[in-house]
């Protein structure tokens, strides 16, 4: 293990990591609400608001784990329900990830610890999805922290550090079902790492049997040492129960339905039910949806291609350094302060990342950039090793070049005559004399030094370009994808992302709902419609609007409204919809102040068209926006008088404040 022996050096490294972590949090919080909610964010956000309103919540695998709704239930009960505040917990967790690098300080050099914190803070994929209210950064971040604390427990021989590992692993399971894949990757990577260690030590010891016997003896000795006065036969079960209890406490807290949790907590007779519903019951729901419904029934290669494309665009430089780090860790030279023989943590995390690349295209149900976060997190450790190795090459090459330049003049002094005349400076008038004399007057040792300088200069240039590429490779994608809703950015931005130009319209919708008294009538009307090219493709219509108050929502097309139910619900609005066969004449007279329809219902080009522009031309203003990256335009009709009154009310309120 490679700890930091110098306390001052360790302290400086910690201060650097803390500084990087603060910057990481600041970058994630800056303009956090600048991007309009994605389809997934709108869905989870809506049900969180319904939970706050009603007090009812039950685990539903379609919106993944209960962590976000339960946690945001507390946050949005205190802070205003804004896009930024809904994303706050994800941004904080993602922003704190660089601090986890400090837990690996016994396994990594100080430069590698710092490099790891930099990569966790600035890799574009991690930064983008740390500013996104989805569970991917949460499930990956918590699993990564669990792994980090487990490593720290091994390094310090302190079983107490397994308790935070159990806590964070449990949190990972409360966020998303693919926490199971993390455990599977842990197991596979551990098997390969142990196999390498077993083969290496068996060669040294001469036999596999001797190596296994040594391992068993060392394990018994360590257990006896750590258990102290408590017998090992008692010490192991006690901590096993403690770790299991820590894990289950988190699971029960999040997976038990609300409000039953608060009631059952005070009734010991209900604790068995709580344990069952939050473990076996939740597992059955997860299996029924994600494993037994055929959601993963898709071709493998297109998903693998999409994942690879996202990794290249959003973490390309990290991949380069990860491969370099994996190789350098096993084969680098001793003069670069690198011991030969791959470290277990580098091999383990590299295998973990490779397993994720292979496994996720088969396991996921949708092609999306967020899948790449589960590859980047483990790959950041070998990448940190590669980045630090590159830095050491630059440092050592520069030092050698400087030392060579310093020693060259003394060893390369030209010979002088007895009278003190420097023969190398004697000019005979011929153009080639000076160069030839200089070469002939330079001793072989000096010529070797000059050749070494040229070699080092080339190495320094190449490696410096690689480091410059690292800076550009991290900064340029972050700048490009910052709050992006660009349809050309599909390698990172998922297709169900509305364009940001809808934000001003949503602000108008919000103020109209807040300031317009519609009594018991709806504030927003969704105009149900069928695709002109496919009558079975119905959007915006909900047959029974009251089913949107609790899960599961009725049919046929509530989800096609996303993410806008989040914005309507947080403004306190009520919705209604008309079926696809309804004509404009049937709802134009008593229409609410806000109407949302598909773009093809605007015109009167063909017989049977709804002609909504003509129907609402006198009293409503129309705004058309792309509600996905492409091919899903919605039109927002807003009552002009209601909008003018709402804007005036907002201005008056601002002046009073």
Protein model, in words:
- The chain is mainly α and 657 residues long.
- 60% of the residues lie in helices and 5% in strands.
- The protein folds into 3 domains: 384 residues, no CATH class; 76 residues; 157 residues, no CATH class.
- Strand 6 and strand 7 form a beta hairpin.
- Helix 6 crosses helix 18.
- The chain is globular.
- It starts with 6 loop residues before the first helix and ends with a helix.
Annotate the secondary structure layout.
Blueprint lengths: L6 H23 L9 H16 L12 H12 L4 H4 L1 H9 L13 H13 L1 H6 L6 H21 L5 H12 L5 H27 L2 H20 L4 H24 L4 H6 L5 H8 L1 H12 L8 H32 L12 H20 L9 H39 L21 H9 L2 H38 L21 H13 L8 E4 L1 E3 L2 E6 L24 H7 L4 E4 L15 E5 L13 H4 L4 E7 L6 E7 H17 L1
Parallel strand pairs: 1-4, 1-5
Antiparallel strand pairs: 2-3, 5-7, 6-7
Number of strands: 7
Helical fraction equals 55-70%
Shape: globular
Mean pLDDT value? 84
Q: Largest beta sheet: what is the strand line-up? A: 4-1-5-7-6
C-alpha-based Rg, rounded? 32 Å
* Largest sheet entry: 5 strands, mixed
Strand fraction equals 5-15%
Low-pLDDT residue spans: 410-442, 445-454
Helices, by number, come to 24
Briefly note the structural class of the backbone. mainly alpha
In total, the number of domains comes to 3
Gap from first CA to last CA = 60 Å
């Amino acid at each position: 293990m490679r700890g930091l022996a110098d306390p001052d050096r360790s302290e400086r490294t910690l201060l650097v990591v803390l500084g990087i972590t603060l910057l990481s949090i600041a970058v994630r919080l800056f303009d956090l609400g600048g991007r309009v909610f994605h389809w997934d964010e709108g869905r989870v956000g809506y049900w969180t608001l319904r939970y706050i309103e009603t007090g009812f919540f039950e685990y539903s695998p379609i919106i993944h784990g209960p962590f976000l709704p339960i946690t945001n239930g507390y946050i949005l009960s205190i802070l205003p329900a804004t896009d930024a505040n809904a994303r706050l917990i994800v941004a904080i967790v993602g922003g704190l990830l660089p601090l986890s690098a400090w837990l690996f300080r016994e396994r990594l050099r100080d430069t590698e610890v710092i490099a790891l914190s930099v990569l966790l803070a600035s890799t574009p994929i991690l930064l983008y999805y740390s500013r996104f209210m989805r569970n991917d950064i949460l499930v990956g971040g918590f699993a990564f922290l669990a792994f980090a604390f487990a490593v720290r427990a091994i390094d310090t021989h302190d079983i107490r550090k397994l308790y935070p590992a159990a806590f964070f692993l449990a949190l990972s399971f409360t966020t998303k079902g693919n926490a199971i894949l993390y455990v599977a990757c842990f197991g596979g990577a551990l098997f390969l790492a142990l196999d390498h260690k077993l083969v290496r030590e068996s060669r040294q010891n001469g036999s596999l049997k001797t190596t296994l016997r040594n391992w068993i003896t060392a394990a018994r000795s360590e257990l006896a040492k750590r258990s102290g006065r408590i017998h090992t036969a008692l010490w192991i079960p006690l901590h096993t129960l403690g770790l299991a209890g820590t894990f289950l406490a988190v699971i029960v807290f999040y997976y038990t339905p609300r409000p039953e949790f608060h009631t059952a907590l005070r009734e010991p007779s209900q604790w068995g039910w709580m344990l069952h519903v939050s473990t076996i019951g939740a597992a059955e729901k997860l299996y029924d949806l994600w494993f037994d419904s055929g959601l993963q029934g898709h071709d493998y290669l297109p998903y693998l291609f999409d994942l690879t494309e996202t990794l290249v665009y959003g973490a390309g430089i990290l991949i380069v350094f990860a491969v370099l780090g994996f190789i350098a860790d096993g084969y680098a030279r001793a003069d670069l302060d690198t011991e030969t023989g791959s470290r277990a943590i580098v091999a383990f995390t590299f295998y973990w990342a490779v397993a994720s690349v292979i496994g996720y295209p088969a396991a996921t149900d949708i092609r999306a950039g967020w899948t790449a976060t589960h590859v980047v997190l483990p790959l950041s450790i070998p990448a940190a090793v590669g980045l630090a190795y590159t830095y050491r090459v630059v440092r050592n090459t520069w030092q050698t070049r400087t030392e060579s330049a310093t020693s060259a003049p003394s060893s390369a002094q030209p010979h002088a005559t007895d009278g003190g005349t420097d023969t190398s400076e004697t000019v005979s008038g011929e153009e080639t004399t000076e160069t030839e004399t200089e070469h002939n007057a330079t001793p072989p040792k000096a010529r070797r030094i000059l050749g070494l300088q040229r070699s080092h200069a080339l190495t320094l240039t190449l490696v410096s370009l690689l480091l410059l590429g690292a800076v550009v490779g991290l900064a340029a994608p972050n700048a490009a994808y910052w709050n992006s809703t660009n349809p050309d950015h599909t390698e990172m931005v998922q297709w169900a992302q509305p364009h940001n130009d809808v934000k001003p319209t949503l602000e108008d919708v919000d103020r109209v709902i807040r300031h317009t008294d519609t009594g018991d009538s709806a504030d927003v009307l969704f105009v149900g419609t069928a695709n002109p090219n496919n009558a079975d493709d119905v959007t915006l219509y909900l047959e029974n609007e009251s089913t949107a108050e609790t899960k599961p929502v009725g049919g046929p097309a509530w989800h096609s409204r996303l993410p806008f139910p989040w914005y309507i619900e947080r403004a306190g609005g009520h919705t209604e919809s008309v079926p696809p066969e309804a004509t404009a004449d049937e709802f134009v007279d008593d229409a609410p102040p806000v109407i949302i329809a598909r773009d093809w219902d605007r015109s009167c080009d063909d017989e049977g068209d709804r002609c909504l522009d003509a129907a609402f031309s006198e009293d409503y203003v129309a705004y058309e926006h792309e509600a996905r990256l492409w091919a899903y335009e919605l039109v927002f009709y807003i009552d002009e008088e209601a909008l003018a009154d709402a804007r005036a009310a907002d201005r008056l309120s601002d002046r009073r404040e």
